[in-house]
Every structure is written in structure tokens, then in C-alpha cells.
Amino acid sequence: MNRIFSGVQPTGNLHLGNYLGAIRNWVRLQADYDCIFCVVDMHAITLWQDPAQLRAHVREVAAAFIASGIDPEKHILFNQSMVPAHAELAWIFNCVARMGWLNRMTQFKDKAGKNRENASVGLFAYPNLMAADILLYKATHVPVGEDQKQHLELTRDVAQKFNNDYKVDFFPIVEPLIFGAATRVMSLRDGSKKMSKSDESDYSRINMTDDADAIALKIRKAKTDPEPLPESTAGLERRPEAANLIGIYAGLSDSGVDEVCRRFAGSPFSEFKKELADLAVAVLSPIQDEMRRLMKDQTQIDSVLRQGAERAAAVAAPIVREVKEIVGYLRP
Ligand code: AMP
Ligand code: TRP
């Protein structure tokens, strides 16, 4: 069976974009793949994190996954730092990947900003740790957002160079699974910007932890234009805010944008927003209730993550053993 690996950073403020663009797709992949989902706390500390916050965010993300329908019994859900082999393989990849490759990574340039000399070495080597995450389990498919495509290319280069350097046919060449722009959720305040956890306005996003009143208020205040809903997708051209709200409705109701347009054609946005708020609350509130329940019992989440880590480590063990043999480490 093909194996999926994907990671998400425990940086908190999970929002509707994360749900419709990532988590929900992952939930669906469980039917066709053997899945490993990882909360990547080691990636998170490439930028300084408050330790108490980091722990809380790891648990929050794990709770969101389970509440959304990730099955930690059939598949594997764990956090990265509990499986030391991630760091071991990342070191080997630090010695395989070339400086020139990493120098081309646009995410490093974005995150390091102007003062590159002051960025952590970890931030620079970040893609090698990501390659290690994936190849540690010989995953074949990796669902990610568009922004991670370059890192997956690097993962393929690392696998290929390792195979060449050591004259082995060991690591697979992974395939990205990119979910289309159709699932891109935009800011509620500005239809040209992605809904993002780092937007300074909380009104720009629907957080997974927002209650029904907050969701309704944010949708009511969402930016639109004065026109009513069009009859078809064609009528959404140059109307990014209208397209976004209709897209969210389509996403939440699992229908097409055209279908939503046909249903609400001619309605004013004030009416449509009420329908959208009801739908958002109906879809999200059972997930949120379950998240709250899970987060109340820290020991339960921690034990799910620990068991996941044990099972992940067992999958990785023979692979790491073989890598060490290939590289020429003495057996401990
Ligand atoms: P991030 O929150 O940027 O770390 O992203 C975590 C996951 O959620 C990635 O797979 C992203 O592609 C996805 N994601 C983040 N923001 C959005 C958005 N506004 N619309 C759709 N998907 C998103
Ligand atoms: N870099 C990814 C992100 O920021 C998270 C990540 C870490 C990841 N390791 C991974 C994604 C392995 C897929 C596979 O979204």
C-alpha cells in the first residue's frame, strides 16, 4: 500500500483555511493510504517558541486532527520530537544536501528576512529535516500546500543524491499531492490575501476555537460588494470577496461553486451570510466540541501521541538501521 506522510507545525490559531485546505483532505486520504501524520515541533523551534505555548499548541493540533476524523488507531498520529530518528536522519541529510540547494529555498529567504546572518542554522537546514521526516518512513506520497512544493523537490534531490553517492536504490522518489487552489480560503477582510494565522486582524479568519457567536459575527462583518449573488461562477470575476464566501460555502457543503451560485442566485449577501454562518456553525461545532473535550483531558492526548510515536518508531527502526549500515556507522 502507498504510504502518506504529512506534517503540520504546532503554531496555534488553526483556522478554517487549515481545515478546508489541509485537515479535511487528510481525513479523506485515510480511505486509500496508510497514513502517518506528524505534529512537527522540531520544525517549530527553528523560530523561537515559548516552551509552555509550544506544548499547548502540539496538543491543540493533535486534538483538532482527532476531532476532525483522523483515526489514530488505524493510522499514526504523533509528534516529531518523540521519535529521535528524525534528528538522526536529518543529520545524515545535512551531509548529503548541498549549501547551494538550500540557498535557493524561498521559504528560508522569507522567514529569515533581511537579517540572514542572524537566522538560526536550524531554519536554514529546515528542508533537510523535512526530507528526513518523509524518507524515514519511505513515504510515497506527501499531501502539502502549494508553498511546500519546493521543499518536496529538495526531498527528491536528497533521496536521489543519497542513492547515487552510496550506489544504492534505497530511498523512493516521493510524489507531492497538491490540493488545488479551489480549496484556498482567503481573508474575510481582503479577498486577495490568504486566510492566515499571522494576520493581525482576528476578523480576517475563523479560528477552530471560535464559538458560534464569533463565527456568525465574523461572517456578518466579512467584506463583500453591493451586488447580489450571481447565477454562475462567471459572475464572480473580479469579485474576490464574493467568490471567497461562496467558495467557503461550497467547501463546507461539499458542493460546487456553480451549484451554490444557482441556489442563491439574486439573493443579497446579507441573506446569504446568514445561511453561511449557520452552515459554518453546523459543520464546525461538533468538531470544536470534540476538540474541547479532548483538550480537557491532557493525559488522553499525550497517550495517543506517545502510542503513535511508538508505532512510528517501529516503522522507522529497520529503515534507520539500514541507512546507518549504508553510510558506514558501526553497529552500536
Ligand atoms: P500553515 O498554517 O501555513 O502552516 O499551513 C498548514 C496547512 O494548511 C498547509 O497544508 C496549508 O496549505 C493549509 N492552509 C493554510 N492556510 C490556508 C488557506 N488560507 N487556505 C487553504 N489552505 C490553507
Ligand atoms: N514544512 C511543512 C509546513 O510548514 C511542515 C512539514 C514538516 C511537512 N515536515 C513535513 C509537510 C513533511 C509534509 C511532509 O507546512
Q: What topology emerges from the helices and strands here?
A:
Elements lengths: L2 E6 L7 H14 L4 E6 L1 H4 L6 H18 L7 E4 L5 H10 L4 H5 L2 H7 L8 H15 L5 E4 L4 H17 L9 E4 L33 H10 L18 H14 L3 H8 L4 H28 L1 H30 L5
Bound molecules: adenosine monophosphate and tryptophan.
The site of adenosine monophosphate has 14 residues, from helix 1.
Descriptive overview:
The protein is mostly helical and 332 residues long. It has two domains: 3-178 and 297-327, HUPs (Rossmann fold, 3-Layer(aba) Sandwich); 202-293, Tyrosyl-Transfer RNA Synthetase. Helix content is 54%, strand content 7%. It has helices spanning 16-29, 41-44, 51-68, 85-94, 99-103, 106-112, 121-135, 149-165, 212-221, 240-253, 257-264, 269-296, 298-327; strands at 3-8, 34-39, 76-79, 141-144, 175-178. The strands form two sheets. Strands 1-2-3 form a three-stranded parallel β-sheet, sandwiched between helices. Strands 4-5 form a two-stranded parallel ribbon. Helix 1 (16-29) links the parallel strand 1 and strand 2 (34-39). Helix 10 crosses helix 12. The chain is globular and about 70 Å long. Bound molecules: adenosine monophosphate and tryptophan. Residues 5-7, 9, 40, 43, 130, 133-134, 142, 144, 148, 151 line the site of tryptophan (TRP).
